[in-house]
Design a protein that fits this description.
The structure is a single chain. This protein has 257 residues and is of the alpha/beta class. It is built from 9 helices and 12 strands. The chain has helices at 13-23, 39-49, 58-65, 79-88, 103-116, 130-141, 171-174, 178-181, 184-194; strands spanning 4-9, 29-35, 53-55, 69-72, 92-95, 120-122, 147-157, 197-205, 216-223, 228-234, 236-248, 252-256. The protein has a 6-stranded parallel β-sheet, with helices on both faces. The chain has a 6-stranded mixed β-sheet with strand order 8-9-10-7-11-12, covered by helices on one side. β2, α2 and β3 (53-55) form a beta-alpha-beta unit. α4 packs parallel to α5 (103-116).
Length: 257
């Protein structure tokens, strides 16, 4: 069995979760390189996780290490550019959410995939839990009747200290507020279970944080199946909760955490 060589680009908070996950797969993959523009931070990350090759330049790392797999863990505005660089260097890519900022960037990623035969995946882990897979099968079988109503709430809390990080809260670097950065996992699972949507009516506002992007958004969605759903995202909610609810003809399924 081949042992793959992995590299992580961006050694901020989320990168530690990727590194820990790679350690659990040590028989299949080795973390051989890490990259960050902050030399002190990347050196500390390399020491903490036993990474032999720390870099401060992405191109240098890709050229000299030639990894099989690259994990992109940078701020959102760099995701598309770095994913394309990595596949063109011959690596498969696992990119943190959001994958890109526009349909044009998505087209560019798909073009690079077609040219190289390598692929870019993004982190939407909720789809892969056994509970989600079981519920999807029940929906497809209409075991509880038709799915009629759905609720998707991500009501979290992020204070001013959270937004003091220079790239957060700005359209140019974070690409969005809680709709993109916090509720995205619940929304992805919600849409994966409910299917294609046909109509969206929505509002977004910046109510309490000194940021460019929204801190609250709400949407009403009509799905191709005829079902209707609501989606709420907030970073202003002191009692934090993620809540999903699905009302069928014969049952209700709900999850909160």
């Amino acid at each position: 069995m081949k042992r793959y060589r992995a590299a992580i680009i961006g050694t901020g908070g989320i990168s530690r979760i990727h590194a820990e996950a790679l350690k659990t797969l040590a028989e299949r993959v080795e973390l051989v390189a890490c990259v960050d523009i902050d030399q002190e931070r990347v050196a500390q990350f390399a020491q903490n996780f036993g990474v032999p090759h720390p870099f401060t330049d992405v191109d240098e790392m890709l050229g000299s290490v030639q990894p099989d797999v690259v994990h992109v863990c940078t701020p959102p505005n760099l995701h598309a550019e770095l994913s394309i660089k990595a596949v063109k260097a011959g690596a498969w890519v696992l990119c943190e959410k959001p994958l890109c900022a526009s349909l044009a960037e998505l087209d560019a990623i798909q073009k690079a995939e077609a040219e190289t035969g390598k692929y870019v995946s993004s982190v939407f882990q909720h789809r892969f839990g056994p509970g989600a897979a079981h519920l999807r099968q029940l929906i497809q079988e209409e075991a509880m009747g038709r799915l009629l109503v759905g609720l998707c709430n991500t009501t979290w809390y992020r204070d001013e200290v959270y937004y003091a990080v220079p790239w957060r809260g700005k359209w140019e670097t974070e690409l969005g507020g809680p709709t993109m950065g916090h509720g995205i996992h619940q929304i992805d699972l919600f849409l994966w279970l409910l299917g294609d949507w046909e109509e969206v009516r929505a509002m977004a506002g910046t109510l309490a944080r000194d940021i460019e992007v929204e801190d609250v958004s709400m949407a009403i969605v009509r799905f191709a199946s005829g079902a209707m759903g609501s989606v709420t995202n907030s970073v202003l909610s002191p009692r934090e909760e993620s809540y999903l609810r699905f009302d069928f003809e014969k049952a209700t399924v709900e999850l909160s955490h």
